[in-house]
Amino acid sequence: MAPNQNIPPLNDKSLFKQECYVNGEWIKAKSGKTFEVKDPGSGKLIGTCPEFSKEDTDEAIKVAAAAFPSFRKTTGRERARMLRKWYQLMVDNAEDIAKLITWENGKPFADAKGEAAYSASFFEWFSEEAPRTDGDTIPATVSGNRIFTIKEPVGVCGLITPWNFPAAMITRKVGPALAAGCTVVAKSPGETPFTSLALAELAHRAGIPKGVVNFITALENTAEVGSAITASPTVRKVSFTGSTGVGKLLMKQSADTLKKLSFELGGNAPFIVFDDADLDVAVNGAIACKFRSSGQTCVCANRIYVQKGIYDKFAAAFAEKVKGFKVGGGYDEGVTHGPLIHDRAISKVDAHVRDAEKKGGKVVVGGQKMSELGSNFFQPTVITGMTMDMQLASEETFGPVAGLFPFETEAEVVEMANKVDVGLAGYFYSSNLQRAYRVAEALEVGMVGINTGLVSDPAAPFGGVKDSGFGREGSQQGISEYQITKMVTMGGM
Ligand code: NAD
Question: pTM for the complete prediction?
Fold first, then answer.
């Protein structure tokens, strides 16, 4: 049966905005063009958003540049207060933010509430970092000289984020940018713009000065807006979260103006279970890591490697849990897993399953589209007997498919884990202390989870290596992505 998706009205209806937020005002595209945004579960229209062009984007960049000279002069303490206020407004309106996330992204309401709290925590964290952007005093090697450094905001930042975490991907960038004293133009994802526009309304209520945060939207004109941001000499920093292909394009486009860049790109996380792991803990960890947001997170387990001694037991316990999932509209009663974002996502997931089957994998749970629910639903799937020649081994599936690969030795599994172009997160379960260090050091990734399938924390540096990008979000390092270090030498002492 198709999802009911009876999302009740927002407690505060004025959080639902269908215009862009530029210079403290709600505006339309100059052309008057809009695009439609649909609920990925029911396919019903949610609303429309302005189709911004290069001209509209240039205007938003101009506004952010005009706001920068006075915003950079505010003290860290003043910026901390603004971010803290914005944080508190997010906490106070968390239920409405979660409703918007479920509506436009499809994830179950409980997960959306988790995202609302997690996304707000970046404003809390960076409100605490804002007053502590210390430089250094450095003993000079030249006699009579004195050296010190100043941390300065890099300037106007262009921020581009994906649909899978409509709130958190934005606060993870805007929080440190504002803490550092930068102003921003944030392009929201075409699939999930309404959550970010609600955040813009809360920024307004928090008293963030006009022009400091600007939220713009586009769907068909996405590439045009991306070019406007990357080509602009005014924009000094681009922070992008999304696919590796688009990241590489934006990097090329940014070359002429030599911008500071951070890229959080695609993953293909290995999740390794050694014979000496606690089986129940590993099964639960793998379930959470693989199927959160129906497998649509960049740090999702994509390749689950299980040592031969416990492979059968693990596969049986894991499959049993997956059989208990209930798929449907994110707001429907008892639903544990929602739709995928669009039909292209369904096609990719289906292709990975069919390819694994053709090459000898055995589908033990799911494996099919759920057309009876709508065009964007796929059965949570478990495949055993996976091998490294299958598509799922080298490509990020970004969907609810768990492929279980058997392995024999630590050396073998480390080699398999590293045999991909990307390196975002990697996980392993073991009770052997020496192995914990060895494998953590051997995995070619930016983040490692040992005996846990969840690594995100505003206090921890989040980011990848290889084709998963560079730069770190969250933690003390997160703010440095939005700063320059100016060195001052004074002579003649
Ligand atoms: P995507 O690259 O297609 O889109 C991401 C964002 O870029 C969207 O806002 C989109 O509108 C915009 N975009 C697309 N083409 C553009 C262009 N030419 N110029 C400017 N902007 C452009 O990615 P997606 O499919 O929306 O998201 C899924 C991908 O994001 C996955 O690969 C996932 O692993 C990755 N991701 C990575 C992280 C991380 O932190 N590393 C987090 C979430 C998602």
Answer: 0.97
**CA-CA distance, 372 to 194, in Å (whole number)?**
28
Q: CA separation (Å) from 327 to 193, 291, 351, 372, 373?
A: 24, 12, 20, 11, 9
191 touches ligand 1 (CB under 6 Å) = no
C-alpha 241 – ligand 1 centre gap (Å): 5
d(CA 32, CA 124): 37
Q: Write the Ramachandran bin of 390: left for phi over 0, alpha for psi from -120 to 50, otherwise beta.
A: beta
Residues annotated as catalytic are 264, 298
Q: Is the CB of 396 under 6 A from ligand 1?
A: yes
Of all protein residues, the one whose alpha carbon is nearest to atom 18 of ligand 1 is: 223
Report the C-alpha gap between 433 and 439 in whole angstroms: 10
- Examine the predicted complex and report whether its ipTM is higher than 0.85: yes
- Measured CA to CA, the distance from residue 210 to residue 208 in angstroms comes to 6
Helix (H) or strand (E) holding 477: helix 475-480
- Any atom of ligand 1 within 6 Å of the Cβ of 424: yes
pLDDT band at 1 (very low <50, low <70, confident <90, very high): low
**117 — alpha (psi -120 to 50), left (phi > 0) or beta?**
alpha
CA dist 272 and 100 (Å) reads 35
Distance between CA 422 and CA 446 in Å, rounded?
A: 10
Q: From the CB of 445, is ligand 1 less than 6 Å away? A: no
Which atom of ligand 1 is closest in space to residue 464's alpha carbon?
Answer: 41
